[in-house]
Amino acid sequence: MQQDEYEHALYRAGQVREIERAAIAAGTGEAQLMQRAGAAAWTLLQRRWPEARRVCVLAGQGNNGGDGLWLAALAQQAGHTLSVCELPARRGAAATQARQLALDAGVPLHAAPRALPAADLYVDALFGIGLNRAPEGLAAQWIEALNAQPAPVLALDLPSGLLADTGAAPGVVVRASVTLSFVAWKRGLFTGRARALCGEWLLDTLGIDAAMAPAPDAWRLRPAPMPPRARDAHKGRYGHVLVVGGDTGFAGAARLAGEAALRSGAGLVSVATRAAHAASIAAQRPELMAHGVESAGEFAALVARASVLAIGPGLGQDAWAQMLLAHALQAGKPMLLDADALNLLSAQPRALPDGVVLTPHPGEAARLLACDVAVIERDRFAAARALAARYAAVTVLKGAGTLVAAPDARVEVCTEGNPGMASGGMGDVLSGVIAALLAQGLSAWDAARLGVALHARAGDIAARAGERGLLASDLFTPLRTLSNGGA
Question: Could you list the residue ranges forming a coiled coil in this record (predicted)?
């Protein structure tokens, strides 16, 4: 693996330990790795918080605590005012050596204090990747106190209380300003609760050769851009998307998906909707070919002309919706299923044709897997893989840190996007984007990956004016720019 690839690879905690063991076997001692981690944290502290003169380190019992003690020794030697709050514990040889270095540097070590000393910056070195349950006792009290104070927090490796493999937090968890991860990225840093807890992500590989790393469990999403169009291009080369939805009162969902498909480069976009909505959709966006559909025959004629179907935005779950979904699945064309199409599928599971993309949010994912939302959010990686395997379809599990999973268990994680995108219609826009990419010839996997990335980046661009009040339609202009290679 090349070094730049390594820095986008995501690992389970057990795999990270394998990498550390390989480095130690190759001649880099455990104490040396700990020293490098402490030095990396000290360098970051000086660069990010040069005004922070009083630093408090919360040190746990394992090597994460040793990393923090190394940082404390270096900061004390440089003239900062340090204090260390220690959890009572036995330490390994490397962490014991780091503790002695801190003592020799004159760092005050407070054994299990009930209250945290005042500081300009706190360093969370309590647990790292070693915790797989909720923090308890004094550690839980410290975390609550840490979260209640206004000073910034630097988390070493990952915020204490966060599960490295899943991004879930079964109890109290540190809210960090910056998370400095060591050796390799832990996959749980980028999805679920982690998105609200890690602050800014940074990685220091501690000089470990990427060749020592095993195959990663997942990847940070890095899709290739679309190639430029030929000068003799015409609309027939770029596919015909048929958006299917817009039941009574929900015309906007179908319209948003249709326009997103146009803005993302589909050559033609039609909308199959309730007859009462067709005229208004055409008036709002005349480039969309809106058709009122009330019978199977009318729908079959539209499906025959389309190259890709996007089924679900505003679809509803009545007999009309069931008829449309059944005929769409029989067509055997590449398609995307979202929203009520997923709810209908969960109520009546059936085989899907090749080239299908599913885009559930956690509630829809829970229905598709016949479980509750808590199970989905407890391990989003497992849920995404289970959906992709069960339905033999590329699956986009939406939410904070959207996951894209393939039936062969590949998973990529989107690290872009923002809370302003938690508003009505955003999922409809994503459906249109992915459908447009399918229409332009991308595989289901590549269309889902690129579509998720374009959607998230467009949301970030649109949110430059502020996250609160962001509308789904605000993404249309940046989508056009991004689809043409702009930024």
Answer: none
The annotation places the binding site for (6S)-NADPHX at: 63-67, 128-134, 157, 253, 314, 361, 428
pLDDT tens, residue by residue, 133-173: 999 999 999 999 999 999 999 999 999 999 999 999 999 99
Give CA separation, 302 vs 182, 258, 295, 309, in Å: 54, 15, 11, 10
Q: What is the pTM of this model?
A: 0.96
Q: Residue 32: its pLDDT value, please?
A: 97
What is the chain's length? Answer: 487
HSE, CB side, 13 Å, CA atoms: give it for residue 212: 21
Record the tokens describing residue 439, joined without a space. 């229409």
Which residue ranges in the chain fall short of pLDDT 50? Answer: none
CA neighbor of 455 nearest in space, from 223, 138, 300: 223
Query: Is residue 279 left, alpha or beta, with left meaning phi > 0 and alpha meaning psi from -120 to 50?
Result: alpha
Binding residues, as ranges, are: 63-67, 124, 128-134, 157, 160, 253, 314, 361, 398-402, 427-428
Any idea which architecture 3-217 has in CATH? 3-Layer(aba) Sandwich (3.40)
The architecture (CATH level 2) of 235-483 comes to 3-Layer(aba) Sandwich (3.40)
The annotated binding site for AMP is made up of: 398-402, 427
